[in-house]
Fold:
Amino acid sequence: MKDVIENKLKLRSVKPTAMRLLVLQCLMEQNRALSLNELEALFENADKSTIFRTLKTFQENYLVHRINDGSGAIKYALCDDDCICSLEDNHIHFLCTKCEKTYCLKDTPITTPSLPNGFRANFANYLIEGICSTCT
Amino acid sequence: MKDVIENKLKLRSVKPTAMRLLVLQCLMEQNRALSLNELEALFENADKSTIFRTLKTFQENYLVHRINDGSGAIKYALCDDDCICSLEDNHIHFLCTKCEKTYCLKDTPITTPSLPNGFRANFANYLIEGICSTCT
DNA sequence: TAAACTTTGCAATGGCATTGCACTCCTTAA
DNA sequence: TTAAGGAGTGCAATGCCATTGCAAAGTTTA
Structure:
């Protein structure tokens, strides 16, 4: 397990510090998008700004992507290994309004519609709110 | 023009105060989604909290909908007259990353994909970022 | 081993949404 | 016509979250 995490970092040329390993492991285990506060709560003794900067480093190296789910707090979720956060990598996110958890629906790619004349798309953020399978 | 605005309010049983007429007119004229700060700047002498509460009233009566375009500030845009802000009323929004303006693409309804088993959709927020026709 | 760089923790700061409270305005009923 | 009640408004907080400056701690390199 530890190897897998370290490999993920190596793949993106990010030095494996203790904090980074922890955050990455956490994101892998939870299998959903987490906010800064949620992450902070899971660690107890780690500083929020350190986690913030860890996540920033991760973003810059395509390890995680940010999700704006309208909850007020930005959520962070793991990217696939071959992700470069392009329009093609964007996928739908799902916010359960009951448990407040946000999931990546990686198997549900975003279909970009034809836009009005002169409009060009670079990035898409598609969020669906509803009830997840656990809360049904 | 004034009649049109007053009618819109009457249609939703919202009392036409000066502030409400102004805000509604503004949203109609701009033909795009505006943030609280943008609205405040357009009026100069009106208080932000009044505008906020005006918009809240509008939301509650399906006159405007909120848009989370990831800019940090919530934007507000006019609803159609027959809107009840249901999943079917949701449409795509477009944020131009150059001029920072957000548009409703009312003619581009959101197609909700088939979700994983057990997931049920109640609301969708689909934002596309890119360059608008004016900035191309 | 010392210098240079990176990472971390703490303590701000700033932006935006939201609310409490008092004042004003408008409506209503005696 | 006037007093009372309710709605709307303005001002001044408050709170939450993202972000950053700075110094200490840790790591790498010559």
